[in-house]
């Protein structure tokens, strides 16, 4: 049986951040668009995504750690053997540099490819933003407002159908984004108050000011979306 931790290239005691970092490195090499000559590239990529999804889900990881079994075994490998997937990952792991990751991220974010992926996973997961976020490469929770704008635009144009799952997950994820930003703002204010290095004061204040401006803008967007959703809901009642 395949060892999920071995495939991911992390230890069983790895933190979520370490697992996410391993995923970002590995996904660059195994993405189907980078392996067009391999007919099994898509299946391998999906299996790899599933492994990381299990390791990043607290409940599923707990089951895996306790039993050694895949909690979603019926969904995972399909016709591919675990050995094939492990061999594929070993061939590519460790060949990725930070520069290549940053380059791919710059090209992918906001591209037509990302838009098509967003549409594909919206349909696949019925608009569940939490699941979509995991499957979109080079993304994290800071991208949720951007994804929401894209989906709302697609829905208004009739390119996608609004779903109950999308509405529920949108409210949940935007609230989470707002909470994260509030914590970040608190840290920014703390850094400003505790700064004692006079030589770095100007630069530090500029950086912190820009961070705070982006955070406020983000909060405003989240508030607007949540308020709009609340008003729409109250009108229907």
From TrEMBL:
InterPro entries for the chain: DnaJ_domain (IPR001623), DnaJ_domain_CS (IPR018253), HTH_DNAJC9 (IPR056453), J_dom_sf (IPR036869), J_domain-containing_protein (IPR052594)
GO cellular component: cytoplasm; nucleus
SUPFAM superfamilies found in the cross-reference section: Chaperone J-domain
GO molecular function: heat shock protein binding
SMART domains (alphabetical): DnaJ
Pfam families: DnaJ (PF00226), HTH_DNAJC9 (PF23302)
Annotated ranges, domain J: 3-68
Alphabetical list of PROSITE patterns matching this protein: DNAJ_1 (PS00636), DNAJ_2 (PS50076)
PANTHER family (UniProt xref): DNAJ HOMOLOG SUBFAMILY C MEMBER 9
Name the record gives this protein: J domain-containing protein
Species assigned in the record: Galdieria partita
């Amino acid at each position: 049986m395949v060892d999920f931790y071995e495939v991911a290239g992390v230890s069983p005691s790895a933190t979520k951040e370490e697992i996410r970092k391993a995923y970002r490195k590995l996904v660059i090499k195994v993405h189907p668009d980078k392996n067009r000559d391999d007919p099994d590239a898509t299946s391998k990529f999906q299996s790899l995504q599933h492994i990381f999804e299990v390791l990043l889900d607290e409940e599923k990881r707990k089951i895996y750690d306790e039993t050694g079994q895949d909690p979603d075994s019926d969904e995972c490998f399909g016709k591919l053997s675990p050995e094939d997937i492990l061999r594929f990952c070993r061939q590519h792991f460790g060949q990725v540099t930070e520069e290549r990751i940053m380059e791919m991220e710059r090209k992918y974010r906001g591209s037509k490819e990302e838009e098509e992926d967003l549409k594909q996973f919206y349909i696949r997961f019925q608009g569940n933003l939490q699941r979509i976020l995991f499957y979109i490469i080079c993304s994290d929770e800071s991208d949720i407002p951007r994804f929401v704008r894209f989906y709302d635009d697609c829905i208004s144009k009739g390119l996608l159908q609004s779903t109950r799952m999308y509405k529920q997950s949108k409210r949940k994820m935007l609230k989470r984004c707002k909470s994260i930003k509030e914590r970040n703002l608190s840290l920014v204010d703390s850094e400003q108050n505790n700064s004692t290095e006079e030589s770095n004061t100007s630069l530090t204040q500029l950086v912190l000011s820009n961070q705070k401006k982006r955070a406020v803008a983000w909060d405003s967007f989240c508030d607007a979306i949540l308020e709009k959703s609340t008003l729409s809901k109250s009108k229907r009642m």
